[in-house]
């Protein structure tokens, strides 16, 4: 039966926890002492070389053996913590497997490997001494607390007959009970110390943790953005295929009723005319809403066709130049479309411009979007009322892009956006 199975049979949660911690300390003792002979060998060789430099040669073999056994000892330490206290030590980042001779060299020069060497060769021996001390406290406590049992178990001819031995045994029992009370606290403190040392030296460094956290956050944010974009597409399809078609059918029926039912009273005809006009206005508003959510032409034909459609609906001439050898991801494509659409809307509303230019091109792994107009200028991203520009900047930042607006007084205004594209 395994040790962990025996520990589960110990009654009481505090006793089981102390048993697990003591087992962790006992299992760590041989692992902490594993590299001690190698370093004693190295120190002995160096001491002999100091006394007789010409007769003894210092060999690097102990260091090489330490580097060889370090990964194995690290695996043992990880399994020890996982099996006995249920703690998983995060693995540090290591270079991937290479096909050239530099791969072993890169592994030997990683900080993670040398932190592990420090744990086993520098922190290991002091921890082994502490492990021995704690185990000695437990052994002394158990023997002293059960001294009456030992006296009872001895054969009659071996029992102590001196006067006062029972008083001494009582003192020993009291001392043993005190050590039993102190043992779990010493063990817990040592386990916390060992765990902290293992997390610092066997786990990833603070920089690696931050890098891994940033990567996880970037991945989760990308998932949220993709989910939001997919939800917009679903809403757009539902509105286009559902509510919009019903409104179109209603407008057609009202138009037929107005054209065919000529014998209706004037009041009824006015009601039908009003309902027909309201239905057409509702269709127009719904078209704008659907286009604002996610235009179907963007998904079907890409940025060139979608931006050309936006430019065609504006009251000022807009030159659109799109140069994309391949389409970016749907999320980046949607961000670029909405940035251009909202920027052109702001041009029409506020810039007093007579023309605008839109340039979209892919340079390496970056999608460059430039919107320029010949308006009055004076747009300031930091101004209190520049909510439209701030919204564009936030939308661009959601995909790790950069947003800049250059708009001196008198114009022209140039908005430059750079969006990263996945390779």
- Going by helix content, strand content and strand pairing, the class is alpha+beta
Continuous helix count: 14
* Helix-strand pattern: HHHHHHHHHHHHEHEEHEE
Strand portion: 5-15%
Poorly predicted segments? none
Radius of gyration: 39 Å
Which strand order do you get reading across the main beta sheet? 1-2-3-5-4
How would you sum up the major sheet? Answer: 5 strands, mixed
End-to-end distance: 53 Å
Q: How many runs of DSSP E, i.e. beta strands?
A: 5
**Average pLDDT number:** 76
Bulk shape: elongated
**Helical content band:** 55-70%
Which descriptors apply to this entry?
five-stranded mixed sheet; 423 residues
How would you characterize the overall build of this protein?
The chain has 423 residues and is α+β, with helices and mostly antiparallel strands. It has helices spanning 3-8, 13-32, 36-51, 61-85, 102-108, 111-145, 147-153, 165-201, 206-260, 266-293, 296-301, 303-312, 330-351, 387-397, and strands at residues 318-323, 356-363, 366-373, 402-406, 413-420. It has a 5-stranded mixed β-sheet with strand order 1-2-3-5-4, covered by helices on one side. Helix 2 crosses helix 6 (111-145), helix 2 packs across helix 8 and helix 3 runs antiparallel to helix 4 (61-85). The longest helix has 55 residues, at 206-260.
Question: How are the SSEs placed, and which strands pair?
Answer:
Layout: H1 3-8, H2 13-32, H3 36-51, H4 61-85, H5 102-108, H6 111-145, H7 147-153, H8 165-201, H9 206-260, H10 266-293, H11 296-301, H12 303-312, E1 318-323, H13 330-351, E2 356-363, E3 366-373, H14 387-397, E4 402-406, E5 413-420
Parallel strand pairs: 1-2
Antiparallel strand pairs: 2-3, 3-5, 4-5
């Amino acid at each position: 039966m395994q040790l962990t199975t025996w520990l589960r049979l110990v009654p009481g949660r505090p006793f089981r926890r102390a048993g697990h911690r003591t087992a962790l300390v006992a299992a760590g003792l041989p692992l902490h002492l594993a590299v001690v002979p190698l370093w004693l060998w190295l120190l002995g060789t160096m001491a002999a070389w100091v006394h007789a430099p010409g007769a003894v040669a210092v060999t690097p073999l102990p260091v090489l053996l330490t580097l060889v056994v370090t990964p194995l000892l690290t695996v043992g330490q990880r399994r020890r913590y996982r099996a006995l206290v249920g703690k998983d030590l995060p693995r540090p980042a290591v270079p991937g497997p290479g096909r050239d001779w530099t791969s072993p060299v890169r592994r030997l020069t990683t900080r993670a490997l040398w932190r592990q060497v420090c744990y086993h060769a520098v922190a290991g021996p002091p921890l082994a001494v502490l492990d021995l001390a704690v185990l000695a406290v437990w052994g002394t406590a158990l023997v002293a607390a059960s001294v009456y049992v030992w006296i009872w178990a001895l054969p009659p001819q071996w029992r102590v007959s001196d006067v006062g031995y029972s008083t001494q045994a009582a003192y020993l029992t009291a001392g043993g009970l005190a050590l039993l009370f102190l043992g779990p606290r010493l063990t817990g403190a040592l386990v916390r110390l060992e765990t902290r040392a293992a997390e610092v030296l066997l786990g990833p460094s603070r920089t690696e943790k931050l890098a891994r956290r940033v990567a996880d956050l970037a991945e989760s944010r990308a998932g949220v953005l993709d989910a939001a974009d997919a939800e917009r597409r679903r809403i757009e399809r539902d509105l286009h295929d559902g509510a919009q078609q019903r409104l179109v059918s209603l407008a057609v029926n009202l138009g037929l009723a107005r054209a065919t039912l000529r014998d209706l009273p004037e009041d009824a005809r006015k009601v039908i005319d009003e309902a027909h006009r309201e239905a057409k206005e509702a269709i127009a508003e719904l078209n704008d809403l659907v286009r604002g959510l996610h235009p179907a032409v963007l998904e079907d034909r890409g940025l060139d066709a979608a931006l050309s459609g936006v430019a065609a609906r504006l009251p000022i001439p807009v030159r659109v130049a799109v140069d994309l050898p391949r389409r970016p991801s749907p999320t980046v494509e949607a961000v670029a479309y909405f940035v251009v659409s909202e920027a052109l809307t702001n041009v029409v509303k506020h810039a007093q411009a007579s023309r605008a230019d839109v340039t979209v091109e892919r340079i390496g792994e970056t999608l460059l979007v430039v919107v320029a107009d010949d308006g009055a200028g004076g747009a300031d991203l930091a101004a209190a009322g520049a909510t439209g520009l701030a919204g564009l900047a936030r939308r661009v930042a959601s995909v790790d892009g950069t947003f800049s607006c250059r708009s001196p007084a008198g114009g022209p205004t140039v908005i430059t956006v750079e969006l990263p594209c996945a390779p």
